[in-house]
Each structure stands twice: as structure tokens, then as C-alpha cells.
Specification:
The chain is an alpha+beta fold. The chain has helices at residues 18-21, 52-62, 88-104, 110-124, 132-139, 153-156, 192-203, 207-222, 225-236, 260-273; strands spanning 3-16, 23-38, 73-78, 143-147, 157-161, 169-174, 241-244, 251-256, 279-282. Strand 7 and strand 8 form a beta hairpin. Helix 2 packs across helix 3 and helix 8 (207-222) runs antiparallel to helix 9 (225-236). The longest helix is centred in the middle third of the chain and has 17 residues, at 88-104. The protein is globular and about 55 Å long. The model has no long low-confidence stretch (mean pLDDT 95).
Length: 286
């Protein structure tokens, strides 16, 4: 067994849920994903229940890109907690496409990779929209507002901005029990004001405000009362921003660098208030 290609990506969190207004935006987190393309099956069993990696190979081939000869297999190493709204599928899609690029020495720019990642996620059924905003965040620093109704890479990104400096912020992720099902798209429309506020914040270059406003819209759409309480609790203890990411259940809390006591309080408080949840510390991707 030999490694013939390696690709990397990262997890991310939501700034604007695509179901709210038809526009989505995410920002990368330092939750690395590495995918290796192998010439024989790995010794360790690979969990890919939705067939995302098969879908990646299919869309790659259908796009006319060269495929390595012989039997192919995958190996995935991910620090992204699955089923939490932290863009694990987008990260795996981007990393596996980069492994194919590495294996074939076939140059592709990031917009083309994002388009293929979106097509693969649609084909595998892990996203209703293609999650192109998630794929951008998994592939590159900064944030981009993506029109989910666009039909090409040239028209998909409607706005973009710089990311948040990793050295300025600490990011806490409070995970939870994965949801049994994604909320229906219709549940988001009655709470459009929160998503409009998030979009307006991005237009003003305030991604942390967008993260919070978007989270409020998601907890309203999902009726996640516990998520609302736990996110609000972050502000009492020094958090600058907090909100549910994706459709949940994970809550992302952002604390300014240097506020060690605030982080300590949050750790202690969440250990008491949500002992069944795990707290993960990370940073934004610079």
C-alpha cells in the first residue's frame, strides 16, 4: 500500500445559514482534515456512510480530469467533530479533491475545487444546497457570502472579507448530541430578521456580529431552547460572540485573546450546565 496523493482542508463555522435568505457564509477554524489517496485499501476501516468519497471520484472523472490508474482507496484523518455543523463534509470533499490534484499533478484553482466539492456533496446527499460557502471556508482563509442559487463559480461569490486573526481570538466549541434530522427549510423563513441582521453585519465587515445573529436565527428555526440558553450564557462570562453553527447542535463561542479568566469561567460553567457536552478549544484559520 502506497500513498499516491495527499490533501488538506479544515473545518469551519457558520456566519450565515444558507436556508435563511438563500445566501450562506462560513469562516474556517483550525480543525485540520487530511485525506490520503492510496493504491490499495488501508488497514483501518473507513467510515463514509453517505458515499461522499465515491461521489468525489465520480464528479472529478465526469469533469474530465485525469484519474490515477488501478485500484484506489482513501484514508481520512479529521479533527472536525462530525454531525455538529462544523462543515466536516465540506472539509473532507476539499481535502480529497486536493489529494487527487496531488496524485495527478493536475492544477486546479480554488474556485474549481469548490465547485467540484459542491457537486460531490449534492450527489452524496449530505447537503441540499451544495454547501459552497462551507467548501470555501474549508479551502481558503477569510469569508465569502455565496448565492446558493448561482449556477457557476463566476457568479456564486457575491461578497467576501478578510478572516479574523488567529492570534486575536480564542474559539470554544461546545458540542452536543447530533440531531436526528436536519430542520426543514421552511422553518427558517419566519426568522428571516436574524439572518438579515447577519447579512447586514457582513456587509459592514463585522463577522462576529454575523455569527451571533445567525445563531439566534438557527435556534429559533430549530426550537433549540438549550442552545439559546447556552449561547446567551457565553456573553455573561466574557464571550464576544456566540451562536449555533450550521443547523447545530454545536455552539461556537469567541473570546478575545488574553481573557484567560473568562475562558476558565466558561469551562467551569459549561461543565456544570452541560456535562453531557464536550468543550473543544481552537482558533480561526489565518
Amino acid at each position: 500500500m502506497a500513498v499516491i496523493g495527499t490533501g488538506n482542508a479544515n473545518g469551519a463555522c457558520s456566519l450565515l445559514h444558507a436556508a435563511g435568505l438563500g445566501y450562506g457564509a462560513s469562516i474556517g477554524l483550525d480543525l485540520p482534515v487530511t485525506v490520503r489517496l492510496l493504491d490499495a485499501p488501508a488497514r483501518r476501516d473507513l467510515s463514509d456512510p453517505n458515499g461522499l468519497l465515491d461521489a468525489v471520484l465520480k464528479v472529478w472523472s465526469e469533469a474530465g480530469h485525469p484519474t490515477p490508474p488501478g485500484e484506489l482507496a482513501w484514508s481520512v484523518r479529521s479533527d472536525v467533530p462530525p454531525g455538529q455543523g462544523l462543515k466536516s463534509s465540506a472539509a473532507v470533499a476539499i481535502a480529497s479533491l486536493r489529494a487527487l490534484v496531488d496524485a495527478t499533478e493536475h492544477r486546479l484553482e480554488t474556485p474549481a475545487l469548490v465547485e467540484l466539492a459542491g457537486a460531490a456533496q449534492l450527489q452524496a446527499g449530505v447537503s441540499l444546497t451544495g454547501a459552497y460557502d462551507d467548501a470555501w471556508a474549508a479551502a481558503a482563509p477569510g469569508w465569502r457570502v455565496v448565492d446558493v442559487g448561482a449556477t457557476s463559480a463566476e457568479t456564486r461569490v457575491v461578497m467576501e472579507g478578510e478572516g479574523l486573526k488567529p492570534e486575536d481570538w480564542r474559539v470554544l466549541i461546545l458540542t452536543g448530541t447530533p440531531r436526528d434530522a436536519h430542520p426543514p427549510i421552511e422553518s427558517f423563513a419566519p426568522h428571516a430578521i436574524h439572518f438579515q441582521n447577519a447579512l447586514s453585519a457582513l456587509q459592514e465587515g463585522r463577522p462576529l456580529v454575523a455569527l451571533t445573529q445567525n445563531g439566534r436565527g438557527v435556534v429559533a428555526a430549530t426550537q433549540d431552547h438549550a442552545g439559546r440558553q447556552l449561547a446567551n450564557h457565553a456573553f455573561v462570562n466574557g464571550g464576544r460572540a456566540a451562536g449555533v453553527t450550521g443547523s447545530g447542535p454545536a455552539i461556537v463561542i469567541v473570546v478575545p485573546e488574553g481573557m484567560d479568566q473568562a475562558v476558565k469561567r466558561l469551562r467551569n460553567q459549561y461543565a456544570q450546565r452541560a456535562p453531557d457536552r464536550k468543550l473543544v478549544e481552537t482558533r480561526f484559520v489565518g
